[in-house]
Design goal:
Length: 322
């Protein structure tokens, strides 16, 4: 596996933090700094010190069929995953989570559906960042997006499902997901001992996808629709069939099956974020209730003790620090 230099293990991070704590220069300052011991996964204790060292920061700016944008940051690297909002809305959401920046290290696109890439020409104009995308997805985007897209490309890094690559100090793994697009992918991101997984827009949970999601400190997973609401809802029959198909979207029920199964979901995530929630065929309270009920069905030895969150189409989620 390719590694992103400098790649710190969890133990190395703890050692560095302890050194910082012991340094005389910081000792007096630290008296006034909030600190907290947060139990990490078995085998370690993570020391989180406000403002000193963050493994990976995740800001979900928007999630759903009207637009998806997620910002990932370390101390050295800043990435955008999907660009499904226009310039004004993206900048407003960034401002809402107190982010303004001139430099972006890359934009990654999961697939060519417009809720994931319609704002891409504008994002490329603002940040002139390289684009990380599979070739079939790029081909479809060139067909769908306005001509300005091609003119504003500042370099394309072709990626492939099943491949690891590094952007700055973030190691990225792309993997195939079942969805009705040219070459749809999900991602895991690792940096400084933290792992984040992002998978939305998939018709079902293949075993291999479940394997990729294991070990995530933050898991962002689609919980798109309630089956009953979809069936009686406003969508035309053909669209309902598409959403329900093996290359459509994940239902609350499918998510429940996954979350209740210790052989599927390992429950070690500090943050479990349910995302891409349909505005017409679902609601956030139902998503939460369904997931909570599923998590209660887990055996006591593998209880989920993290925080359950539901991402919104309209409001950014609070930044999650891993
Ligand atoms: Zn989507
Ligand atoms: Zn899609």
């Amino acid at each position: 596996m390719q590694s992103c230099s400098p790649q710190l293990t969890r133990a190395q991070r703890s050692a560095i933090i302890l050194k910082i704590l012991l340094s005389a220069a910081l000792r007096s300052r630290l008296r006034n700094v909030a600190q907290a011991h947060v139990p990490a996964r078995p085998g370690g204790l993570r020391l989180v010190l406000a403002g000193v060292l963050i493994g990976l920061r995740v800001s979900i700016l928007a999630s759903g069929s009207s637009g998806n944008v997620t910002l990932l940051e370390t101390e050295r690297t800043r990435l955008l995953v999907d660009a499904g909002l226009g310039k004004r809305e993206t900048l407003a959401r960034l401002a809402a989570v107190e982010k303004t920046f001139d430099h972006l290290d890359g934009i990654l696109i999961t697939h060519e559906h417009t809720d994931h890439c319609s704002g891409l020409p504008q994002m490329l104009r603002i940040w002139k960042a390289p684009l990380y995308v599979t070739e079939p997805t790029l081909g479809e985007m060139q067909r769908i997006l306005p001509e300005t897209f091609g003119k504003r490309l500042n370099g394309v890094e072709p990626i492939h499902a099943g491949e690891h690559f590094c952007i700055g100090d973030i190691e990225v793994h792309a993997f195939a997901i079942p969805h009705d697009a040219a070459d749809p992918i999900g991602f895991t991101f690792r940096s400084n001992g933290a792992k984040m997984a992002l998978v939305t827009d998939l018709g079902y949970m293949p075993e291999l996808v479940k394997v990729h999601l294991r070990g995530a400190d933050c898991l962002v997973l689609e919980s798109n629709h309630d089956l009953d609401m979809l069936k009686v809802g406003p969508y035309p029959w053909l669209v309902k069939q598409r959403v329900l198909s093996r290359t459509g979207h994940l239902s609350n029920h499918a998510v429940s099956e996954y979350l209740s199964d210790p052989d599927g979901f390992d429950a070690i995530a500090r943050y479990l974020v349910l995302a891409h929630v349909s505005l017409e065929n679902n609601n956030p309270d139902l998503v939460r209730l369904s997931a909570e009920e599923a998590l209660k069905r887990r055996p006591t030895e593998s209880t989920f003790t993290g925080e359950l969150l539901v991402a919104s189409q309209h409001v950014p989620l609070k930044p999650l620090e891993l």
